[in-house]
Amino acid sequence: MASTSPVFLRLMANAVAVANHAGNIIREVMSKGDLGIVEKGVDDPQTEADRRAQLCIIGNLNKKFPLMSIIGEEDLAQESNVELVNDIDKEVLNLRCPEELVNVTEEDFVVWVDPLDGTAEYTAGMLDHVTVLIGIAHKNRPVGGVIHQPYYNYKNDKAGLGRTMWGIPGIGVGGFKPIPPPEGKRLVVTTRSHMTPVVQQALEALKPDEILRVGGAGYKVMLLMEGHATAYVFASPGCKKWDTCAPEAILTAMGGRLTDIHGTPYSYASTEMHPNKRGVLAAAKSDDHKWFVENIPDEVKQLVQGS
To answer: Which of 147, 251, 267, 272 is most exposed, with the fewest beta carbons within 10 Å of its own?
Structure first.
């Protein structure tokens, strides 16, 4: 079945399986006690888990889809002796493939990988903020996304540790049940550690009922997916394409939207610059997204122009 399925479904099914394995790596490194931290820059740590998870994800996807462009967060030379993942997610493999992707070949997809989103939170023990992100793009747009949360439920039932969520626009989502945000409340999630005067100005102008400050783009979008927040607002160039490709695909699949703060979608072509220079604005409901775009002050938008 796998060999005759469309490339896209095989890619998605392999992405789910390899994300699960990356979660095992992340937990294994943490359990050893030595995270192998190196500093890539100011307040920008990289751990052994970041390195091993990326080598595993990209190595396995490269092995099965050698003609495909894969872009990972970590600047690493790919090794030949990767930890092989032979599993494939049969539920995803048996989905109906979007008609426009049935005959697309592997060289026409671009995959954006964040092997451990929320590294600072990982090193600080804020484990529920940690995710693995694998986003698949075609013709510059996200067409599939996988978010694995390795420490889901870690404070409760250890037997139920970890979960994987996926989304395919036009088909649907799996691994979680989308929940709309509370009616009549404006709950905004934003950065935990990269606050700036411009970010603060945008938040104040929106007059939220509550501001949630958490780490990791993946975790922020998960709060939208499960009804804990109305919108994710970040009027700053801090995020990268590998932070938003997978979350955007899942939000789109459930009727939401992710753009820059001007309301313009990002391109995920392999030739694009990695930073999302015009900030991030996301909502689980398109109508909410439209309201936030319209109510972010023009002054803020002018300050976050990007290029």
So the answer is: 267
Burial 224-244 (b: 16+ CB within 10 A, else e): bbbebbbbbbbbbbbbbbbbb
Tell me the two tokens of residue 164.
């994987």
Percent of the chain with pLDDT over 90: 83
Q: Confirm whether 128 is a catalytic residue.
A: no
CA proximity to 9, closest of 163, 114, 144, 146: 144
Examine the residue annotation and report whether 196 is marked as an active-site residue of this protein: no
Across 134-151, average pLDDT: 98
Buried b (16+ CB within 10 A) or exposed e, 22-35: bbbbbbebbeeeeb
Measured in degrees and rounded to the nearest 5, phi and psi for residue 190 equal -150, -170
Q: Which residue has the tokens 């600080």?
A: 124
DSSP assignment letter at 237: S
Catalytic option among 47, 50, 230, 243: 50
What tokens were used for 115?
Answer: 């092997």
Tell me how far apart the alpha carbons of residues 220 and 139 are, in angstroms, rounded to a whole number: 26
Instruction: Count H helices and E strands in the chain, helices first.
Output: 9, 13
Catalytic, out of 89, 114, 117, 119: 119
